[in-house]
């Protein structure tokens, strides 16, 4: 197997190209994706109130409450694609994610996950990982108010495809 060393700019272009393909697939196959999302949601643990309207204010939306960490790459009535970057030794402000999503991890390391009260919910002590040992994509249910802290020496980087419909 060949190994290619890419410059940061080339990696960014590759990531954007991959996200563009993913968005095209999501938009182009919404009915199949919706069925898969519903099936995944049925087995995924709930992290938000079960039914009814979204109970949290729009001011807690990730893009509004933590814009320095969440950048919109693409948005329409069906999906919103976010680039999420949490620099080393940094904690995001409290925020929510209203829609179920698929998270694609570019790289990740150690960190902490806090609930709305600031209580520590989970701590990852796994050192920085990138490459084949990293689980790249996973389903994520909507998330109630939370904050993520990166306690590692490298930035956490994700692409989050939120399914609005």
TrEMBL record:
Species lineage: Bacteria, Pseudomonadati, Bacteroidota, Cytophagia, Cytophagales
SUPFAM superfamilies noted in UniProt: RmlC-like cupins
Identify the domain of life.
Answer: Bacteria
Name the UniProt record assigns to this protein:
Cupin domain-containing protein
What InterPro entries does its record include? RmlC-like_jellyroll, RmlC_Cupin_sf
């Amino acid at each position: 197997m060949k190994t290619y060393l890419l410059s940061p700019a080339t990696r960014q272009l590759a990531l954007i190209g991959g996200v563009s393909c993913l968005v095209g697939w999501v938009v182009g196959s919404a009915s199949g994706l919706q069925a898969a999302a519903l099936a995944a949601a049925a087995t995924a643990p709930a992290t938000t109130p079960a039914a009814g309207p979204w109970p949290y204010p729009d001011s807690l939306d990730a893009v509004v409450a933590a814009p320095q960490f969440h950048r919109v790459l693409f948005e329409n009535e069906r999906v919103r694609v976010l680039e999420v970057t949490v620099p080393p030794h940094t904690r995001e402000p409290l925020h929510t994610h209203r829609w179920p999503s698929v998270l694609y991890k570019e790289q990740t390391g150690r960190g902490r996950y806090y609930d709305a009260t600031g209580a520590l919910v989970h701590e990852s002590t796994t050192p920085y990982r990138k490459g084949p040992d990293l689980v790249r994509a996973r389903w994520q249910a909507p998330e109630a108010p939370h904050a993520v802290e990166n306690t590692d020496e490298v930035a956490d980087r994700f692409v989050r495809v939120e399914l609005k419909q």
